Amino acid sequence: MEGLIWGGIVKTNDSASEIDTPRVGGIHFRVGTQAGHVIRVDDELIIDASSKGIFKIKKNWQNLHDVDLIKELKVLYNLPESQITLIMLEELRQKYANDWKNWPVNLGAPYVDVNENGIYDPVLDANGYPIPNLGDYPGMDQAEQTLFMVVNDLDSVKVKSLSGAEPLGLEVQITLWSYDTDFLPLAHTIFKRYVFVNKSNHAIDSMFVGQFVDADVGDYSDDLIGCDTLLNLAFAYNGNDVDFEAIKKDLPPPALGYCLLQGPMVETGNTSDVGYKNFNPLNGFKNLPMTSFVYWASGGSLADPPLGVIDYTLQMYNMLNGYIPTNDLKYPTPYVAGSGPNAGQPTKFPLSGDPINDPQGLFGDVDGQGWNMGPSDRRFMMNTGPFTLRPDESQEIILAIIGGLERDRLGAVKQVKNIINYLRAAYQNQLKDVFPKPDVPQVKATPFDEYVVLNWGWDAESVQRIEQQVKNGFRFEGYNVYQLPRADAGLNDPQTVKIATFDLINDVAKISGLKAHPVNGRYYETLLQEGSNSGIKHYLVIKEDQINKIKFYRGSTYYFAVTSYSYNPELPEYPSLESDYQAVSVIIQDEPPGDRYFSEAEQEIEVVASKESDVLCLVNVVDPAAVTGHDYQVYFTQDTDTASATYGTYLWNLKDLTTGLTVLTGQSIKELDEDTPPDKMDEDQLIVDGLLVKVLTKPKGLAAIVQVAGAEGTLTSEQNVWHSLSWINDPNRFYISAGGGNGTIDRLLSGINHANGHDFELRFTNSGGWYLWWDEDSNKVAARVPFEAWDVGPATYDDPSDDIRCLTGGYSGGATPGVFDFAYQDPFFGFAATDWIDIRKPLNEQGSYQAFAQDIESGAFTYQWWNNSVEVLSNIIICDFGGARTLPPSGTVIRFITTKGADQELTFTFTAPDKIEDDLDLMKKDVEKINVFPNPYYAASRLEPDRFTHFVTFNHLPPHAVIRIFTLNGVLVRKLEKNEDSQFLRWDLKNEKGRSVASGMYVIHVDMPELGKQKILKLLVIASEQMH
After folding, report:
1. For 169-202, what is each residue's pLDDT tens digit?
2. Can you tell which superkingdom this protein's organism belongs to (predicted)?
């Protein structure tokens, strides 16, 4: 048993003295309240009769199954299933409907404020019922069930029978709610909210509220209790390893916890403090925590206060203040710790030790240890206060009631505490994401004659919401695709098949945790999600019946579902949640009458680039029924938002050139991966007009390092010199490598981002230029070298107008600064190598080669050019293969060709495949395809779900058709009319009177008035015994 108890001191106009007697009320072993909302009429408080009773709603009230209602009625009335009547079922079903329609928001009942305007303004259906998400609707957000009631303490007889005191004049609005899930923190939790309203004309001072609990965890006689001040938790658990009530159900001993998520709000005056009330934050306030914990035991030295006399009020008010139950308010007696180093010391939080890590109570006050009583029938109360409640003011507290069930009694306590850690984190967002289930993917399913296309990437807003939102630490991780045996089958149905999982490429793959057993509800460790770092996709082409492992059967209906799932590594016991789903059904068929498709799923479309680059654009058909035949263009824009993660980079956009509309914007360009073929990359793009468009680029780097000229002039073909020998006619052949590390190409690329797609050359000349050893400790040493470095623009080799001379310098490598020689050794092949060459590109005149040279020649070495230039290439070494230790001769040119990314001049264009829809001439032509199957019909069909359902199906029908079925002698058996887009229509093999037809041959006349066409079919029916 449990209930809420309150107490306070009434303040009239005359200030009360310290000997004022408090008033106490609430719900204990007697009920000191009555039902109803309090109204003031002519200064008199009366009860609104219409507000009496319990209002309760379910989220799925329109689809309640009898089995769920029976389960509830069995508990509600403590009846066996055999005594649950149809009338009782219907009354309960109607109760849920009525309360959904007439939810008492005016009495304080909570609602989901969809538009967040603070006003209950639901959108109603034709029968006056609120439609969720279109407008506000009853209950707590995402909760499966919400209960609401209003009580008050105006009945002095009831209050005196409890406490011997007069009423305080309170109205209490009580809300309870829970969630339908196997997510353990919520599956084991009931939430409770109390709102207190002072309906009297006097203030209530020094008010406290206490949650009283007579726990009775399993067998009532062997319980222990405790509190945790850090978690605002009071809990009860079994004192023995076996509980005689739990063992009857083959269960280990459970545990029970009450957590104060939100206490009364009091003003602090400190604007940095934040208090919460009605799920809204208020600065300058704070919520009181659990301010004391008290306990007593049936038959113990601390017993229940005597009911119905003023002694109850005195003792209970002392307990609300954290003292033992005595009548002395002036000199109350404190509780004392019973074990641990503070044993015998007064405390307002007895039994606050840790039974999990300190079961002997050596370091804290643990129940059942030291001077504390042994296991018995315990009661406890967790309290919060004091606060003042003035006339017409309200206060609010929110509690979570948690059940724990683990392998043993202390494991159950640990589970309760783990759940509370999660709930308290969720409360920081005012419980908005307490149930962080991912959103449901929006799936379109398109059937064809041999395959089905599932597309959940068509809704950009839905995809972004699913993949970007973080709910209480849970982040998107992947999608699952299922085939269901029936429309109403669940994911746990033994015939349901998981077809595919698409998950992020990260360090998360398989996710294990606790899951509820579908039969007994017990939680067990299992594999929750089976990712493989496959990468995300937003579509799937399914080419066979995954349940039966056969090809799709034309005319058959198949059911599919797509879910999203999330991951939170901070919750190892329950780290993943999977979304709900919407089952989508498809009938395998070829093109509908009047339609023609001119492409296939996953067909590649030719793309034309405006210029050469290292950017690749791939376009594939996803849904041949959704393509447009339009012309499209991919173009690029630079991100100029300094707060953006992609600031400064180029993003791609997709424009429909036929309509002039831009259909995708701000898409990131993905880098190519050497280990993954391009057609397998970037599958996570959105699907637009039935197309998957992907834009990929090589990573910023060097596409090649080539020799383009030698002493004799320009080479007829470029010669690769990266770790490869130079032109065969060079007098002393060389190759290019990298100084430091292992001599790999990444050593050259530390400044490659500054290259901006430009290429660079080392030109060996007679005049040469300055080289400065700027990476040496003595960075004022320079020498002339027989080469120059140039920025030659973005592959504009024949246009010298954009060439810019660069700065050269670096590191000796061979400990000979001041002498550019071959004293270093290539770390890759081991040949003698030059000093390391860095190339810096000027940003302005102050960073130009002229400024650089002047700084050296003047001997000043001010390095003012340094911040006016940027490094583009580094650690280049020229390696001596020929052995002469000479640099390449004058006229030699080594070109560093960078990868060419996107820019504003680059575009890709393509034309989507076309299709024909609703063509009247084609519809007339398709009349020849109209048929009925199975034909002959032999007693049953594999398309029928059970032996009681019988039908044949007409296909290739236009939107409107009238079908008349005759016997051979011309008697009309049945008339059917079709008025919808599907090409299919079923006949249930019954006549106009609803009776099954006899065996025989039937003539079928199909009339299509809009087409001016008719067709005659014949059907042979062999009836079965079940049909009659």
Report:
1. 999 999 999 998 889 999 999 999 999 999 999 9
2. Bacteria
Identify the CATH assignment for 918-1022 out of 1.10.3720.10, 3.30.230.10, 2.60.40.1930, 1.50.10.10. Answer: 2.60.40.1930
Contact at 8 Å (CB) between 654 and 648? no
Instruction: Give backbone dihedrals phi and psi of 67, rounded to 5 degrees, phi first.
Output: -60, -35
> Residue 424: phi, psi to the nearest 5?
-65, -35
User: What is the C-alpha to C-alpha distance for residues 650 and 420, in angstroms, rounded to an integer?
Assistant: 46
DSSP run (H or E) holding 196? strand 189-198
Query: Is residue 470 helix, strand or coil?
Result: strand
Phi-psi map region of 359: left, alpha, beta (phi>0 left; psi -120 to 50 alpha): alpha
pLDDT for residue 19 is more than 60: no
273-295 pLDDT, tens digit each: 999 999 889 999 999 999 999 99
Q: Average per-residue pLDDT in the chain?
A: 94
Per residue, the 3-state secondary structure of 1000-1028, as one string, reads EEEEEEEEECCCCEEEEEEEEEECCCCCC
| Stronger pLDDT, 674 or 871, i.e. the higher one | 871
Tokens 């807003």 label which residue?
461
Q: Are 822 and 885 in contact (CB under 8 A)?
A: yes
Report d(CA 1000, CA 185) in Å as an integer: 62
Q: Is the pLDDT of residue 556 over 90?
A: no
Q: Which residues contact 694 (CB under 8 A, 6 or more apart)?
A: 617, 618, 619, 620, 670, 678, 681, 682, 683, 685
Rounded CA separation 205/11 (Å): 6
Rg (CA), the chain: 40
pLDDT tens, residue by residue, 458-516: 999 999 999 999 998 999 999 999 999 998 899 989 999 999 999 999 999 999 999 98
Going from the C-alpha of 786 to that of each of 124, 705, 800, the distances in angstroms are: 85, 19, 21
pLDDT value, residue 555: 83
| 164 dihedral zone (left: phi>0; alpha: psi -120 to 50; beta) | left
Neighbours of 327 (CB within 10 A): 14
| Block residue for tokens 């004058």 | 890
Nearest-angstrom CA–CA distance, 513 and 570: 12
- C-alpha dihedral sign at 689, 691, 692, 695: negative
pLDDT band at 11 (very low <50, low <70, confident <90, very high): confident
Contacts of 59 (CB under 8 A, 6+ apart): 132, 139, 142, 143, 144, 145, 180
d(CA 549, CA 541): 15
Task: Specify whether the backbone of 71 is left (phi greater than 0), alpha (psi in -120 to 50) or beta.
Answer: alpha
Are 294 and 308 contacting, i.e. CB atoms less than 8 angstroms apart?
A: no
Per-residue pLDDT reduced to its tens digit, 229-267: 999 999 999 999 999 999 998 899 999 999 999 999 999
Residues of the chain with CATH 2.60.40.1930: 918-1022
Nearest to 605 by CA among 688, 664, 535, 500: 688
Mean pLDDT of 202-224: 95
Q: Identify the sign of the CA torsion 178, 179, 180, 185.
A: negative
The answer to whether 253 and 218 are in contact (CB under 8 A) is: yes
DSSP conformation letters of 538-575:
SEEEE-SBTTTTBPPPTT-EEEEEEEEEEE-TT-TTS-
Number of H helices, E strands in the chain: 9, 67
Paired tokens of 173: 């609005």
Summarize pLDDT for 126-147 with one digit per residue, the tens.
Answer: 999 999 989 999 999 989 999 9
Own/partner contacts of 821-827, CB < 8 Å, gap of 24 or more, are: 821/885, 822/880, 822/885, 824/739, 824/877, 826/737, 826/743, 826/877, 826/879, 827/737, 827/738, 827/739, 827/740, 827/741, 827/742, 827/743
Cα separation, 592 vs 207, whole angstroms: 73
Residue pair 562/441 in contact (Cβ under 8 Å)? The answer is yes
Provide φ and ψ at 158, rounded to 5°.
Answer: -65, -45
